[in-house]
Each structure stands twice: as C-alpha cells, then as structure tokens.
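G., the chain you wanted modeled:
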Amino acid sequence: MSSYSINLNPPPTNEPSQDGSKLPFTLGDVKAAIPPECFQPNLGKSLFFFGRDILTIGLLYALAYYIDSWWFFPVFWVMQGTMFWALFVVGHDCGHQSFSKSKWLNDFIGHLCHTPILVPYHGWRISHRTHHLNTGHIENDESWYPTTKSYYDEMGIIEKVGRYYVFLLAYPIYLFKRSPGKRGSHFLPSSPLFKDKEKWDVLTSTILWISMIALLGVLTYQWGWMWLLKYYAGPYIVFVMWLDLVTFLHHTEEDVPWYRGEDWTFLKGALSSVDRNYGFISHIHHDIGTHVAHHIFLNMPHYNLKKATAAIKPILGEYYHSSEKTIWRSAWDSCLSCHFVPDAGGKVYYTSPHKSQSSN
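Predicted structure as tokens:
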C-alpha cells in the first residue's frame, strides 16, 4: 500500500498583484465554469486508453518483427517512440491520481506504463508534483525554468548548446542529476526531492527500474546489440525526444510570464503555460498539449481537458495562452528567443542576447 496522499485540489490562493492589480477572476470562478463531471475519472475510459496504447505497441512490435527490414526500422522507431510517449501520458494521469479513484490502482497502472520505458514512476511522480505546485516560479519550479541574465553570461559554450539546442535528449540526464542548479536523483530516497515518508515509494520504483535494465541486459545478451537498437533503443530515443519537446513547449514562450517572490501565486503560475495543437498527434498522445486547464486542475483526466478548456477560456480572457504556430516553428522560435530572464523583477519574460542588445 502506498504511503502517500495527494490533495486533489490546487492549493487555495488569494491573488495578490499582477502588475499591481488583482487578477479579474479567482480560482473559484474558474472552477465554477467547468462542468462538474470533468473532474471525475471514468475508469472505463481510462482503461480503454491504456489498453489501446498497449495493443498498438504490441501490434507495432509484431509488424517490425514480421517485416524485419532496415528500410522499415526508422519508421518503426518513430511510430513506436510516439506510442511510448502516449503510454507515458497515461502514467502521467496515474501520477496525478486522475486515472481512477483508487490510489492502489493508479500506482499499479502507473508502474505498468512507466517501468517499461525506464521512468521511475514514484520518483517522477513526486518531482512532477513539485513542478505543479511551483509552476511559473523562477526559483522553485522543478523543470524547464529560465536562467537569469547573469547566469547566462557565465555559461560556457558547451552548456549553452546543450541547454538551448540539444535539449531533446535531456530527460535521462534529468532523472539522474535533476535540472541545472538543483541537486538530487530520482532514484535515491536520500535525494532532496523526497520526504522521509516517501522512501519506500522511491525504492519500489528504483528496484523496478533496475529490474527493467536487467531484463534488457539479458535480452541483449541473448539476441545481441543489434536487437537492442532495432527493438528498444530506437523507439526509446524517439520517446525521450517527444517528452523533452512537449514539456519544453508547455512553458517556453516569450510572451508567457515568470514570477519571483510574492508576485507568484499558484493560479498565476498555472496560467504560465501554453496550449498547443499537435495535429493528428494530439489524440494519439492524449491531448497533453491542452495544458492550461491541466495546470489549474491537475487532478482532471486527460479526456476531459478539451471540454474544460472551452469552458474556462471566456473567464481567462487575455490570461489564456495558446499558440497556433506549427510545433516545429514554435520550437525553433523558442530556441532562438527564450534564453534568459532579467535578474530582477517580480514578473519577467524570456528574452535573448539579440533582443537584449537591441533594447539597450
């Protein structure tokens, strides 16, 4: 039995100033606009999406084994890596306790989703909770937070290239070393990420992760390194690229604010996220690009996010952030324009060396 508990509602917040004035709505106003059924997990729907992903992954493996040709394997890697990412998103619902009303079932399915793709479920769940409780806070957010101008000026060329242009392979490093400027590992109960009462949860996920590595080692020993590349490493790399790309785009846009100190509140931080359209991929990866509503109400099942978003957009007005640019254009523009934020200020925005110089 898991030893943790989760508050299914966001923390209460009395909005202080946004540029010296209150937000024109409260968290209660936003919640009241959403149909109550949007907050209720439907076990049948959740199991359907989980089963659909597992079945698709199995069929893709059978197809790759049947064709067994190098002309097909790159195509297989893209398709299967995308399905690994979709399975991760189902586990993401489990981590937020929105897969079902049962903590035990959520954790069980969460491990089934995450362990095969080398994600330590509880370690990730806890750090992801930290992200949600501090979204948009420059100092306290857990991932994809901006660096300051002074730190940027001290960065070496290798770190800049890795942070701004090769970040699509960052996730495995994050699991072991956390984000730049923070300490801890997702695998060690002694990490600053975790509380003492979370020790056994973390150990459970770490043991399962090691067991998956051991299984891959045994299969590689039996069938060779080429088997590992064709059937696991290729899809895994695509999965990591999807994870890094999507999470980067959730919170990296030059017109989305970041906050410091008392200027930050939970609701302001939750609104510092961006809704994006991934085309036909949106349904495959469970509409995770519909991200604003998810950050305001993290316990909402993914299949209700679109309905909730339609309900809250009139309330949020100009505070709702979305982008109609293509995903690849958005990623490229953010890479060029979102390098750092000013060293001072309660509400700040991303900028880049080029824009910083032109404004002086």
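The beta strands are 258-259, 275-276, 322-323, 347-348.

Shout if anything looks off.
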